[in-house]
Design brief:
This protein has helices at about 15-25, 110-135, 145-155, 170-175, 270-300, 305-310, and strands at about 1-10, 40-45, 55, 60-65, 70-75, 80-90, 95-105, 160-165, 180-190, 210-215, 220-225, 230-240, 255-265. The protein is an alpha+beta fold and about 325 residues long. It has a seven-stranded antiparallel β-sheet. A six-stranded antiparallel β-sheet has the order 8-9-13-12-11-10. Helix 2 (about 110-135) packs across helix 3 (about 145-155) and helix 2 (about 110-135) packs parallel to helix 6 (about 305-310). The longest helix has about 30 residues, at about 270-300. About 35% of the residues are buried.
Length: about 325
Amino acid sequence: MRTVRDVHARTIGAPAGTVGALLDRLAGDDDPLFPVPVWPAMRFDRPLGTGATGGHGFVRYRVTAYEPGRRVRFDFPDGGHHAFEVTPLDAGSCRVTHVLENRLRGARRVAWPLAIRWMHATVVEEVFDNVERAATGTVRAPVHRSPYVQLLNRLLWDRPTAVGLPAGARLARTAFARTDFEDAWQLPLPPGMPCDPAAWKGVLRGAFPEQGRATTADGGELLLGKDARHLDFRASILVESPAAGVDGRTAGHGGRVTLSTVVRTHHAGGRLYFALVRRVHPVLARAMLRRKHRRLALAAPSAGEREWAARVPRAGYGHRTRP
């Protein structure tokens, strides 16, 4: 069994009290530090504090020590831990440190040097970028995701799950008096993702014209589609965000985006045509939703940018392509 120790540290030009207050919001719905939506959010079964259990993505851990404004430690189920700590340097600066100690058993002895190590280092440095941005408004030397880390991120990206046609997809539900086929694929909508359905219009690569749009208090629905002699097709993009983000435009924890399809055939030729198409339709629908989901996440403002924009509205970060 091998034990690894990995340490990252950064000096922040802000008082320890300011940075410590940001650390206390870790894993909350308004978390200003964890690099969401590009990476899975850190979530627990209760507010941050000793005994809270959860993790991020496939990594599980439990809070075993918490000193508000100064330090938090997370222990892994089978040994090892990681921790964040804020150390004052002077009245206007502090050092943030992250330490990981873990025992590598079985497959992790291979996974750590090949993949986990590189993603871990990138995520921690992105946390530090968010600390620096949220506390000072700028980042002196932001981390850049290497092509290899981008590849790992793409491979591990969430995959859509099959769901029933959502009750909120009213445009899809009322598109036809009779439907011969319907399905729906869904992905979570992390903080920072746009909840305006118009932002998701490119999910079908502009192949179908807009047929309707509905706005709700927690998002809305966009309906695309086309009528033909053999069949009529509608695709619904429903965005639901139960909690608004810090800027009033981004989704809070628990949101979701759903791509639904409804089809009406007109005759035997249409039914035969769609019998062939429906074999590849689920594969294409999942791939298109997943690709658009990741692209919007990569273009979203970081947690630190969202926090700074909330404190200084004139900052006004918009969506853009990120490294």
